[in-house]
Structure formats: C-alpha cells, structure tokens
Amino acid sequence: MIGRIDNKLAKRARRVVRRGFSLVELLIALAITAALMVATMTALDASFTAYQTTTETASTHAIGRLTVDRIQAMIRTGQGFGPLPLVPSPTTLKSDYIDIVTPAGQQITIEWQSSAEALYVIVDGDEHLLMEGVIAQTDPDTGETVAPFTLEFASGRQLYRATIDFLIVPDDNMSVVLDGDSEQTLHLIASSMPRSLAY
Predict the structure, then answer these.
(1) Can you tell me the distance from the alpha carbon of 171 to that of 131, in angstroms, rounded to the nearest whole number?
(2) Do 165 and 181 contact (CB within 8 A), yes or no?
(3) Is residue 185 part of a domain?
(4) pLDDT 10s per residue in the chain (199 long)?
(5) Is residue 60 within 8 Å of residue 168, measured between CB atoms?
(6) Which helix (H) or strand (E) holds 195?
(7) Residue 93 domain-assigned?
C-alpha cells in the first residue's frame, strides 16, 4: 500500500516538473520572437520610407506644376517684361528673375534666390515666398550655375518666348525622422510666349 502511494506521488512529481518550460526552450522562443520583430520592423520602416518618398514627390510635383502654370499664365497675359537685354543682339538672356507688367499695370517680379533655395514673388514691393526647395542647376560642360529663366527677345525689346527651368527637391512639412529622406529631385521645364505674339 505504501509502495503504491509512493509511486503515485512520484508520478505527480514528474507531471509537475513536465508542466513548465525549460530555460533553453524559453531562450529559443525569445530568439524566434526577436527575429520576427526585427523582420516586422524592417518591413514597416521600408513601408514608411516608400510612403514618405511617394507623398513628398507627388505633393512637390503638384505644387511645382501649379507654380509653373501660374507663371506661364502671367507671361501669356503680360504687357511688359524684363530684364531687358543691354544690346539688341544677342536676343537670348538668362536671368534669376523675371519682371512682368500685368494688363492692369501691376509690377510683378518672380525671383529665384540661390541662398534661400526658394522662389519669391514680389508684388508692388511686397515679397512673398512662392516655392521652397528650388536648387541650383549646373551645366555639365562648364560647371556653371544655370539660371531658371531664359528670355528670348524679338525686335530688340519685345519678349518672344520665356522658358522656365526649375530643379526642385521634394519636401513634406509633416515628415519625421523614421520616414527617411528622399534624394530625388524634380526637373520642371515649361515655355510660354505672350498672347500678343502668339495670335
């Protein structure tokens, strides 16, 4: 009888020991969990970076196109333009700014400031930020900075065509460190001529 009780107690003791995990099993489970967490966080980081790059590029492209469209509209409807060439020939002038006189006689200047890497619009002496992230372009042959505005004049002082050439760095004001940073740039080029010459 006593022997049976001892056997039953021994079996219960073995069952109690077998109910828990050993230290080795816990370490293996922790290692597997850590590997899965690292893989998940890497995938999330890649997802956040891709999302940030896409939203920065898309929003900057939309803002850049809207800005260029508005400048083109001002050139099409403008009555007077500057800067003017100093001599009648050559008729092509590269500049960091363009002056436009509207049909109502309002003086508008669109200026690229290389130190601020931004475009500004100056209306009757009041300066306003038009677009940030406009960086300098360099000519691959000469290494010189390329001006964003090219003005072609006909008959000396009459503007024939204005070409706008911007290089923009995508930016998003809501970016965070986790999202990463995009090294892409957008190149926007447009050309327009005053309606008085177009028709």
Answers:
(1) 11
(2) no
(3) yes
(4) 555 666 665 666 555 555 677 889 999 999 999 999 999 999 999 998 888 888 878 888 888 899 999 999 999 999 889 898 877 676 888 999 999 999 888 999 999 998 999 999 999 889 999 888 888 888 888 888 888 999 998 876 788 899 999 888 876 553 444 344 545 788 889 999 998 765 5
(5) yes
(6) helix 195-198
(7) yes
